Amino acid sequence: MEKIKKIPQRKCLGCMETFPKKELIRVVRTPEGEVCIDTVGKKAGRGAYICKKEACLKKAVRAKRLQTNLEVTISEELLSELAKEITIE
Prior knowledge:
three-stranded antiparallel sheet; 89 residues; 22% strand; alpha+beta
């Protein structure tokens, strides 16, 4: 009997739906306090996930879910970087 591999699931902060981890963009606050986009998904620190949809990003920013989840203020520079990442996908 073959063992079934478990696919890690994460919740989007915009639409609050659960997706496979690989389908979401991870934003991480490192132990040093720096906030950045984690393209590999392996950086150390507190992570938050967002769908690759512009509406989800807007909703997460408006509701301040990113700030609350990462416990830090999010810069406009990071938000524009996230918007670029979403439009590229």
